[in-house]
Amino acid sequence: xxxxxxxxxxxxxxxxxxxxxxxxxxxxxxxxxxxxxxxxxxxxxxxxxxxxxxxxxxxxxxxxxxxxxxxxxxxxxxxxxxxxxxxxxxxxxxxxxxxxxxxxxxxxxxxxxxxxxxxxxxxxxxxxxxxxxxxxxxxxxxxxxxxxxxxxxxxxxxxxxxxxxxxxxxxxxxxxxxxxxxxxxxxxxxxxxxxxxxxxxxxxxxxx
Length: 208
Ligand code: B1M
Known about the structure:
binds CO-5-methoxybenzimidazolylcobamide; Rossmann fold; 2 domains
């Protein structure tokens, strides 16, 4: 099985979309758990490419093709993340203003949907006012905010405050690579999750 995991990792790093898709399918067929594929191959590939980028050994085009290969692999995983429960609640989800990273948020969406939540995804680079408008429109059980940059995560407390002005009882969950439990607490959020699998668990916990 390790060879399949290594193959997936290499395919994502090289931006080989078709190989990523095929190898994720092979892994599932051979009985690899979706979570193992994600945590043992797909996320490490993104970490690798991120580190290469930090060292100046990879550039934006490489990040983009790796992200695309990752998305293709995620499409194959998606139907396998499902659980039997339905009607868990409605989550409004988006990445904060100034931030176009979508992969983590999309994975959170998949895990939430897989465990029975309905998700309204307002996308990336979402202005605070747009979150408030969408909150007013959908009245979700949970608002989920994602941020991948240390600069854009500073938007989180602003969104929390604006949405709470609309609804004092709003339940808000946050996450993203630079976000910590401590930052979530300081921002006034109700919950934090370090990854998509924990986000689905946390969402259930928040709704009791
Ligand atoms: Co960007 N980028 N990027 N990037 N990028 C990072 C985040 C970075 C760490 C790379 C690095 O320098 N090592 C760095 C941020 C440094 C910082 O601020 N701390 C960075 C930078 C600097 C930038 C630019 C500024 C680069 C530039 O232009 N000079 C630029 C910013 C653009 C912008 O947003 N305005 C930029 C652009 C891009 C691309 C467009 C090229 C591409 C994104 C493509 C896309 O998303 N469609 C990209 C990518 C791919 C990355 C890395 C390599 C991978 C991100 C990723 O997809 N990870 C990333 C390096 C890294 O992460 N190691 C990097 C995989 C994903 C599954 O994990 O997103 O962490 P993650 O999501 C996890 C958890 O965080 C959590 O669950 C997810 C799944 O388990 N989670 C939640 C996320 N949201 C949650 C919400 C929750 C709960 C949990 O509740 C609601």
